[in-house]
User: Which sequence fits this backbone?
């Protein structure tokens, strides 16, 4: 069967949109704006979720902390051998880290000590130890920083070095040896890496102490048994599992995404109200035009085709504009206002850059929530009018 | 050509405000005839023309036009019938005010998807014939009543229909323009068109153009 595309109908549809210029433009604008809001919300949520999943993947299976009176204290390195003796523990890696509050900028830096002779707890730390000579950093105190830290230091005129204030009130000058960029901004953005000796000096830690100890477990099924054994050995210890961390991160994310869900629902309801208004009927002018078209010999399917073209032009162009605007808003402008809802705690941390993630499934959700609904809202009342007698419609 | 058999039309049938616009009207019009439908306002003339054009369906009775049972045609075929056989001149013109003269005239041809050359040729020829070629790109809302009347005639003739139905064609025209309209109808009659003019304008009553008259009063044929 040969179907010839009727270009006159398309031209008529374009003309009709042009004739109803203000109404068409207003509809396009509203549809674009609401789709843009929905898309922005979903894109931000998706980007943060992606960032979160990568961060969680990089977490160690077990982290052992020393508690005293319910508060976190440094842990003695003497425990290392005992922990390694537990069957199933592959490695026990002490970590030296802490938060350094930079008063001038009002932000917290995460300071992580590196021991080049030990195994690293995360993949990106291994990469960094290979890329930089941390042994040399001991003799001439130096550090590698995340992009966010570098930006804040630059803003505060620290181009090549930074003066840390130790717990004893002395200055510890540390040179800036390089900038590190991990897979995700959350992992590296607020981080400062330097030899463990310097970190201990800044935080006033004993050389035979660490902040916590990370355990590598060969067989994940043995985690529960190992936790029991560690607890038996060190009753005052707190053992944090990767799963517990995941739940903790997830609950923060879920709380934040709940707010986003509320925003998303507001957008959706607004959109549906517009759709309802559109679906409740054509204007008297539009109805009369449908009547005239029927009277001069247009069939119902001709009218519906024309309306389909009209709705498609508006819906697809609005969808495309909204998606482009949302991508620009989220990734170029870094979603001002909206992002703060998700990253409200970032006043304590340097800001991070949302990772660029475009998910076809997410775009499909936005598409199906906007384009077909709007088109149905145009076509259903048009069909209702077109199926009436032309005589009745023109009256 | 046009055959009506006891045609009735009741609006809001079954409701309290039911109104009988036509009551058992029967007549026949032969091909090439020019028939005048006379009657006061509200006598059912416009309703009758709408039914002949297939714009509505009679409540009772049968309408056959060119061998086709219009009263029984599904909407899809009724539209095709109007497109191919009927030219309708409405009392209130029923033009699309935001379209130009040319665009209004070609509206009935759009679904046919005919080649652009032929489409323009037909429209230009009619615009020249009825003296509105120079207004081709003017919007309808900027035209005078007489000019709009000519656009309606061009639109009605663009598909070269066999039947022309005119509903109060001179209601919005002055005496000179009404006379012009009569001249146009005279020309179309010589081309063999079947023309039905529904009017209460006395101008038409004794014209040689009219072959015969049918009078309606309160929906009934007198």
Assistant:
């Amino acid at each position: 069967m040969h179907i010839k595309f009727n270009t006159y109908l398309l031209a008529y549809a374009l003309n009709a949109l042009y004739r109803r210029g203000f109404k068409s433009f207003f509809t396009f604008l509203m549809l674009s704006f609401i789709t843009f809001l929905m898309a922005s919300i979903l894109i931000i949520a998706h980007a943060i979720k992606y960032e979160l999943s990568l961060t969680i993947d990089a977490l160690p299976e077990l982290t052992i902390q020393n508690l005293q009176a319910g508060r976190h204290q440094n842990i003695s390195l003497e425990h290392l051998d005992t922990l390694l003796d537990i069957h199933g523990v592959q490695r026990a890696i002490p970590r030296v880290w802490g938060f350094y509050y930079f008063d001038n900028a009002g932000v917290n830096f995460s300071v992580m000590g590196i021991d080049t002779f030990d195994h690293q707890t995360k993949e990106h730390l291994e990469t960094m130890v290979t890329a930089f000579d941390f042994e040399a950093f001991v003799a001439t105190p130096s550090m590698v920083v995340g992009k966010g830290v570098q930006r804040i230091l630059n803003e505060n005129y620290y181009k090549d070095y930074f003066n840390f204030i130790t717990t004893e009130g002395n200055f510890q000058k540390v040179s800036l040896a390089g900038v590190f960029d991990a897979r995700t901004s959350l992992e590296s953005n607020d981080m400062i890496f330097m030899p463990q000796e310097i970190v201990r000096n800044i935080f006033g830690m004993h050389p035979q102490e660490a902040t916590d100890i990370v355990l590598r477990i060969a067989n994940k099924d043995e985690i529960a048994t190992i936790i029991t054994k560690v607890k038996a050995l060190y009753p005052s210890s707190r053992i944090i599992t990767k799963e517990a961390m995941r739940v903790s991160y997830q609950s923060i994310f879920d709380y934040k995404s709940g707010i986003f869900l509320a925003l998303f629902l507001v957008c959706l309801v607004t959109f549906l109200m517009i759709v309802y208004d559109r679906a409740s009927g054509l204007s008297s002018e539009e109805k009369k035009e449908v009547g005239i078209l029927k009277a001069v010999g247009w069939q119902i399917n001709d009218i519906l085709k024309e309306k389909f073209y009209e709705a498609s032009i508006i819906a697809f162009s609005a969808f495309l504009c909204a998606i482009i605007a949302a991508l620009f808003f989220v990734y170029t402008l870094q979603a001002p206002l909206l992002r703060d809802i998700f990253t409200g705690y970032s006043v304590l941390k340097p800001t991070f850059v949302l990772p660029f993630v475009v998910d076809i499934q997410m775009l499909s959700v936005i598409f199906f929530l906007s384009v077909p609904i709007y088109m149905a809202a145009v076509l259903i009342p048009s069909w209702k009018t077109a199926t009436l007698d032309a005589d009745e419609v023109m009256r | 050509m046009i055959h009506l058999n006891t045609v009735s039309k009741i609006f809001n049938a079954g409701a309290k405000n039911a109104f009988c616009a036509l009551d058992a009207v029967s007549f026949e019009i032969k091909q090439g005839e020019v028939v005048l439908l006379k009657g006061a306002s509200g006598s059912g003339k416009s309703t009758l023309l709408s039914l002949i054009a297939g714009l509505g369906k009679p409540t009772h009775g049968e309408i056959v036009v060119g061998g086709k049972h219009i009263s029984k045609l599904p909407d899809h075929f009724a539209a095709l019938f109007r497109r191919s056989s009927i030219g309708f001149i409405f009392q209130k013109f029923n033009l699309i005010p935001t379209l130009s003269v040319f665009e209004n005239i070609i509206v009935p041809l759009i679904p046919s998807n005919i080649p652009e050359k032929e489409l323009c040729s037909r429209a230009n020829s009619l615009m020249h014939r009825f003296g509105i070629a120079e207004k081709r790109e003017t919007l309808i809302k900027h035209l005078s009543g007489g000019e709009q009347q000519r656009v309606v005639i061009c639109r009605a003739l663009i598909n070269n229909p066999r039947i022309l139905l005119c509903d109060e064609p001179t209601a919005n025209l002055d005496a000179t323009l009404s006379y012009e309209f009569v001249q146009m109808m005279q020309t179309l009659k010589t081309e063999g068109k079947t023309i039905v003019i529904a009017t209460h304008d006395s101008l038409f009553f004794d014209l040689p153009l009219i072959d015969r008259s049918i009078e309606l009063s309160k929906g009934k044929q007198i």
